[in-house]
Design goal:
By secondary structure, the protein is mostly helical. Helix content is about 70%, strand content about 0%. The chain folds into 2 domains: about 1-50, Arc Repressor Mutant, subunit A (Orthogonal Bundle); about 55-205, Tetracycline Repressor, domain 2, CATH 1.10.357.10. Helix 3 (about 55-80) packs antiparallel against helix 4 (about 85-100), helix 3 (about 55-80) packs parallel to helix 7 (about 120-145) and helix 7 crosses helix 8 (about 150-165). The model has no long low-confidence stretch (mean pLDDT about 95).
Length: about 210
């Protein structure tokens, strides 16, 4: 790859995003800095600014990648399954989503600030991937619940997508948070991300009534 070639640019962006993902496994968004990300790559820290202007742009690119992987999983299901009942659809959607714990964790972060501190072109790339995830869920509904009209699908999307932003905080409770809940007199009941998502989809798809 020649210096400055599209291939080199893409490879270095991928390396930066991968370094950010690795750090995020053990560190919080607040703790991770451009310096930390740079130290985890094979090139100089200052080179990062040739590809991303802010830490938020890197995290947004990582979230974009996670959306794209989720879309791939949904598209693979639709290519394989010609039909499924509502219960099977709920289980399948829950599985494709909760198979991506990094996506759920990133969604629990302050997306508003991430978007605010990213350039318009970076934000547009991210929004295209987000839009593809909306389209993929909509296509699954259209294929597997054909009796659901367009208005009902839109209501589903704009109830389900806000819901998924809160899955991680409810299923990744720290010991400190559990202790605080106990002091506040709030019983802690564990539910896995899969169970929480499935029970939501069960209600949204009216499975008990179908």
């Amino acid at each position: 790859m020649s210096r400055g070639s599209p291939e080199l640019t893409a490879a270095r962006k991928e390396e930066i995003i991968a370094a950010c993902a690795e750090l995020n496994e053990t560190m919080s968004f607040r703790e991770i800095t451009i310096k930390e990300i740079g130290a985890a790559t094979s090139f100089t820290r200052t080179s990062i600014y040739n590809y991303f202007e802010t830490k938020e742009e890197i995290f947004l690119a990582l979230l974009q990648k996670e959306y794209e992987l989720w879309v791939e999983a949904m598209n693979a299901v639709m290519a394989e399954k010609a039909a499924m009942c509502r219960t099977e659809l709920a289980h399948t959607l829950a599985r494709t989503l909760t198979d991506r714990p990094r996506l759920l964790r990133l969604l629990s972060m302050n997306l508003y600030d991430m978007e605010a501190n990213s350039r318009p072109e970076c934000l547009a790339e991210f929004k295209r991937s987000f839009g593809a995830s909306l389209d993929a869920v909509s296509c699954m509904l259209e294929k597997y619940v054909p009796e659901m009209d367009e208005a009902a699908r839109q209501r589903f999307l704009y109830a389900f997508f806000p819901f998924i932003y809160g899955i991680y905080p409810y299923t990744a409770v720290t010991d400190k948070q559990k202790a605080a809940m106990e002091l506040a007199g709030i019983p802690y009941v564990y539910q896995s991300a899969y169970d929480l998502t499935y029970h939501c989809l069960e209600k949204m798809l009216n499975i008990e009534e179908a």
